Amino acid sequence: MDYEASAHAEPPPIRRQRAVEVFRNRFGVLFDDEVLSPSGGQGRYLRWQWSHGGVVIVPMGEDGFAFVPTYRYPIGEVSLEFPRGGCEADEEPAAAAARELREETGFDCAPSGLRPLGVIHAETGLIESEVRVFAAEVRRAGPADVLSTAAPEAMESVAEPVWVSRTEVAKWLQSGRVTCGVTLAALSLALADVSASGSVPLMGECRPDQPT
């Protein structure tokens, strides 16, 4: 909601008194900040800061949307998600999105073939870093094409993309098949974009990368 353009009052901020770093690795920094509440009470607030911004890609085509079955260690089960990850040092978001798409699905797409859909925050109560959302028009491929070219990271466990039509995706949401917050947010932006344009906008088609 745009509070500046709204008749609703804007809530007062929780103010940071001191940033307290408690953990750091190559992916980011965890803070346990000393804060001051709107009522004047002192407390602590956890805050995670990624080393670099994140990206999520919505693969779409004539067959609908492509979801990647991904085993997620924190929840101990497989989650249907869109490809996503973080930017490397000095890497532009579009380039990172093209790289993550290729690594997790095998679809080879130039950064110019991606279209930005917006920005989301994965968990506003904990993570301060933003995630940029991109749409990629892709062509469905056989399992052999995808599995031979996808190259997930060592600590990632993914299977071949699963396609769902635009009419069936609503049933997936109603049945709770998709629970990843980042994926749900990205899907909402994609559906709003498709609804506003009347159809999926044509971009440079991304195809499964062919090994040389």
UniProtKB/TrEMBL annotation:
Q: Which InterPro entries match?
A: NUDIX_hydrolase-like_dom_sf, NUDIX_hydrolase_CS, NUDIX_hydrolase_dom
Write down the required cofactor(s): Mg(2+)
Q: Which UniProt keywords apply?
A: Hydrolase
The domain of life is Bacteria
Residue ranges constituting the Nudix hydrolase domain according to the UniProt record: 50-186
- Ranges that cross the membrane: none
Give the matching PROSITE patterns: NUDIX, NUDIX_BOX
PANTHER family in the record: NUDIX HYDROLASE DOMAIN-CONTAINING PROTEIN, UDP/ADP-SUGAR PYROPHOSPHATASE
Name recorded for this polypeptide: NUDIX domain-containing protein
Q: What organism does this protein naturally occur in?
A: Streptomyces rhizosphaericola
